[in-house]
Amino acid sequence: NFSSDWPVSIFDNADCFAEEFFFIEEIGAVVFGAFGIFIYSPISMRTFVALGANLKLSAKMRYYHRTMTKALVIQV
Predict the structure, then answer these.
(1) Is 11 exposed, middle or buried (0-12, 13-18, 19+ CB in 10 A)?
(2) What integer pLDDT is reported at residue 30 of this predicted model?
(3) Is 48 exposed, middle or buried (0-12, 13-18, 19+ CB in 10 A)?
(4) What is the DSSP letter of 5?
(5) How far is Cα of residue 40 from the mean position of the Cα atoms in its chain?
(6) How far apart are CA 64 and CA 17, in angstroms?
(7) Mean of the pLDDT values across residues 37-61?
(8) Rounded percentage of the chain residues whose pLDDT exceeds 70
(9) Residues 6 or more apart whose Cβ sits within 8 Å of residue 42
(10) Cβ contacts of residue 41 below 8 Å, gap of 6+?
(11) Which residue has the higher pLDDT, 70 or 9?
(12) What does the buried/exposed string (b/e) look like for 15-26 if buried means 16 or more CB atoms within 10 Å of the residue's CB?
C-alpha cells in the first residue's frame, strides 16, 4: 500500500514501459532475422544438395547426416 503522504500526481505520471526501447529491439530482430534467412538458407540448401549427390555414402549415412543438418537448422 502506498503512503497517503505522497501526492497523487506522482502515480499518474509514472511510466514503467519505455516503448522506444522495444521499438529498437523489434527493428534489430527483423534485420538480424532477415540476415539469417538470406545467409543461412543457401548454406543449408547447399549442404542438403551435397549430401544427396554424394554417392560414396551409404543411404543410412546420408539419412543420418541429413537428420543432423536439419537439427542444426532448427537450433539456429
Answers:
(1) exposed
(2) 93
(3) middle
(4) T
(5) 12
(6) 48
(7) 82
(8) 74
(9) none
(10) none
(11) 70
(12) eeeeeeeeeeee
